[in-house]
Amino acid sequence: MARASASDVLEPTSAGIRPAPRISKRTVAALKEKGVNIDPATAPKDVVALDLAAFDVIVNLCEDNIPGAEAIPSKTLLLNVPIADPMGLGEPAYLEARDKVEEMILFLSEHFHRAKDWAYPAISEAVSQQTTPAPRRRRPPLPDASRPAAF
Predict the structure, then answer these.
(1) Is 31 inside any structural domain?
(2) Cα–Cα distance measured from residue 119 to residue 121, given in angstroms and rounded to the nearest whole number
């Protein structure tokens, strides 16, 4: 879903803490309803196969801790957003999980769009030639919590 809706600000990679041997038919169907087509023959990846230090942001959608989380560098933002695993439950659980993942993607997309579009105040040439360091830049604000994409 992130590739389909936010590829201009996100480079998504998906992996599981305990990946299933295959993508479930209900997952494929739930995503297809949103216009996202995935090949059911695609094998789910295990998070331990990834170099977690290479990521700027890691979103853990599981209630369990990520194996090797202690090695994630402090520069990497780790967001824990537990979403109930629908495995073994009926179609409504898959749709609910899909919708919660979509909310998280929209939240991140909005945040990174704001950050991408946020311009630092221009510094005059006279100031830029000074030997004193430039003032520290503030981070862009997080999306307004009252908006639907925010949790």
Answers:
(1) yes
(2) 6
